[in-house]
Amino acid sequence: MGLSYGDNMSIGHVTPTKLALIELKEKLRLMRSAKRILEQKRDSLREALKSSIVLLVDIISFLKRNILEILELLYANLIKYEEAVRAYEPIAKERIEVEVIWISKGGYYAPEFRIANIPSTVEYPEGLRAIASKFYEELPNILKLVSSLTELLILLREIEITNRIVNTLEKVSIPSLEERIKYINMMLSEMLLSELSSLRVLFSG
Q1: Listed residue (148, 140, 176, 133) closest to 54, CA to CA
Q2: Model pTM greater than 0.90?
Q3: CB neighbours of 192 closer than 8 A, spacing ≥ 6?
């Protein structure tokens, strides 16, 4: 049974030749292979996301009490040494320096924040020295939290992008190629039957 004009138009322009059939089958093979690889990547990213969430919860649980202590110390000392802190702030020269190292984690890159420089607290006013010392003590853990949050966002974005590509391959690209291959096979079969019929007529005559 032949395809109608509407069926032909629905699969786009396809030349019903053996060469075109071979090319389309190779494209289909590559697309299916790419889909499998991307599905594996997606599964790997999802596992990494689970691990990242677990780590994030652990860091938050660890920091919760410590950060509250820092805030309480900050509040108490600002009240007590507010004048000294405000006087020192404009002349402070040293700053905390943080560097970002991008680490490959198999399928994506995640940032790791590291302390490059911490100012000395020797010249700090008494109240500010206590606050700064406590803060600097917890800074590595705070940076771990920032790294984990950033990695979480990167993973969510990577999973979303990979899902979109997999869905496009699965629902659009692969079915389209399958329809074209089906069309060419049908047309080649009809042409072969037509040639055989012509030969039968020729030899019967």
Answers
A1: 148
A2: no
A3: none
